[in-house]
Specification:
By secondary structure, the chain is α+β, with helices and mostly antiparallel strands. It is 34% helix and 30% strand. The model has no long low-confidence stretch (mean pLDDT 90).
């Protein structure tokens, strides 16, 4: 006999969403994390797709969020080198009111934590230290000297996943030699719900619209340039940002302190092994240029929950069930990884031919409504 049915390691967005989706299933679920509920700093923001929004709505999470702290994305503008080319998307072109929504990580995590507190999901504050597998169960040990046996272990413990590394998943990590510098800043020109992105001189700059005419800035640049930018005064940082964005946002002010993180691509041969499944950044990491990392994790949770809920008389850790989850997620994950990795490679090349190729290509795509529709379908619904 096992102690529990499912052990979810990691209480972030993906792990919390999966645990909520399994409420009422009759399964005993334990959510373990060394982070206390409500401990998120909330400094990150997510660009949530309609597919992610629908799942969160079904979980009762979307209605718990403060609408005044959510910013709808009405349109997107993508600029090539020096604004020589442009690709634009507008919600009205696709018969929807919004292309997506910008939501604070802290707000979303708090809503998930509050909802979990109303359920029978057991939460344990501990760090997983060891895992031993048998054909019938997984035995996990924690730093508080407790342990649990489970039919299914779910690794939702982030990019440095203990579960992934300890169990021995076959993985491939590609480092880009770039860092993403992130901060918020206020603009004098109303953003009107438009998200903007510039590909220029090997750097990728994104402006995501926030409430009260603030912008969330994500600026991908080579390691050395990122270091130089972070070492500058705030006035020089703002001046450099204004120049890179061609003054589109007007006068910039009220800049928050900048943070940075290295960029990489993580891919797995499979996100499942015997009685173990990975989700979110534990299963895949993509370049943030498309803003799809959080969406992939949320949709992992939805897919795994559906497989488990429709398991029939089988226990949730049986391999053929986990293979269904892996199959359902393979296309969307690989598609997004290829898109982001390909775009990152294309736009860091600085030779004249590459510059001509990408700008001509962008202009051509902007004149092809069917192609734009397919691109937006992937971004909004994960290709489904």
């Amino acid at each position: 006999m096992v102690d529990i049915d499912i052990l979810v390691c990691g209480s972030g967005i993906a792990g919390s969403a999966l645990s909520l989706a399994l409420v009422g299933s009759g399964l005993k679920v334990v959510l373990v994390s060394d982070k206390q509920p409500g401990s998120s700093t909330g400094r990150r923001v997510y660009a949530l797709s309609p597919a992610s929004q629908r799942f969160l709505a079904r979980l009762g999470i979307w209605d718990r969020l403060d609408t005044e702290r959510i910013e709808p994305i009405k349109a997107m503008q993508v600029f090539g080198d020096g604004e020589k080319s442009q690709l634009s998307f507008c919600s009205s072109e696709y018969g929807v009111a919004e292309l997506g929504w910008i939501v604070s990580e802290g707000d979303l995590q708090l809503a998930l934590d509050d909802e979990l507190n109303k359920t029978a999901v057991t939460r344990q504050s501990a760090r997983i230290m060891d895992v031993h597998g048998t054909p019938d169960f997984i035995q996990a040990s924690f730093d508080d000297r407790t342990g649990l046996s489970t039919s299914l272990l779910v690794g939702a413990d982030g990019g440095q996943s203990f579960v992934r590394n300890h169990v021995g998943f076959e993985s491939c990590i590609k480092t880009y030699g770039h860092r993403a510098v992130t901060f918020n800043i206020k603009a004098s020109i109303p953003h009107s719900g438009v998200a903007r992105q510039w590909f220029d001189k090997g750097c990728i700059l994104a402006f995501l619209p926030l409430p009260n005419n603030f912008l969330s800035v994500v600026w991908s640049m080579p390691e050395k340039e990122a270091g130089k930018f972070l070492d500058q005064s705030e006035a020089n940082q703002i001046a450099e940002l204004s120049q890179a964005s061609f003054g589109k946002a007007g006068t910039l002010s009220d800049m928050s302190s900048a943070q940075s993180f290295p960029l990489s691509l993580l891919s797995l041969a499979s996100p499942v092994m015997d009685r173990v499944a990975l989700m979110g950044d534990a299963a895949h990491i993509v370049h943030p240029l498309a803003g799809q990392g959080a969406n992939l994790g949320i949709q992992d949770a939805e897919a795994l929950a559906e497989v488990i809920l429709h398991r029939g008389k089988h226990d949730p850790g049986e391999r053929f069930l986990l293979n269904q989850y892996a199959y359902r997620r393979a296309r969307a994950v690989k598609q997004m990884q290829k898109i982001t990795d390909g775009l990152q490679y294309l736009f860091v090349l600085e030779d004249p031919f590459s510059e001509w190729l990408r700008n001509v290509g962008m202009q051509g795509v902007n004149r092809l409504p069917w192609v734009k529709k397919q691109i937006m379908k992937v971004a909004m619904y994960g290709g489904g």
